[in-house]
Amino acid sequence: LHLPQGADFALTLPTPYNVGLYVVCGAVLVNGDRPAKAQHLAVIGWDSTDVQITASENSLVLVLASEAIEEPLATYGSFVMNTGEELMLAIADFENGNMGKFPENE
Prior knowledge:
Blueprint: E1 2-3, E2 8-12, E3 18-25, E4 27-30, E5 34-37, E6 40-46, E7 50-55, E8 59-66, E9 74-76, E10 79-81, H1 84-95
Antiparallel strand pairs: 1-8, 2-7, 3-6, 3-8, 4-5, 4-7, 9-10
């Protein structure tokens, strides 16, 4: 969401969703009493059907919302997979440069 300073935005989501707001830049007030500034994640949680966002300054906010996927998690640092085996493979792929590369000097 691109929100100019002073703008209000009402977000309505389905009941079973888990909701988070990542403030890319700027600052917002969530539900009237919860400040969130640039590079912060405001976790709203489950069953939050109505979220009010007010921009304290010009802001860019990424809305993250989804139903639970009800799958097992295996985590290590920033790696998230479903099983320990998949996790080890992902780490090996990363260490071997198999996850892609950024173009040089672009």
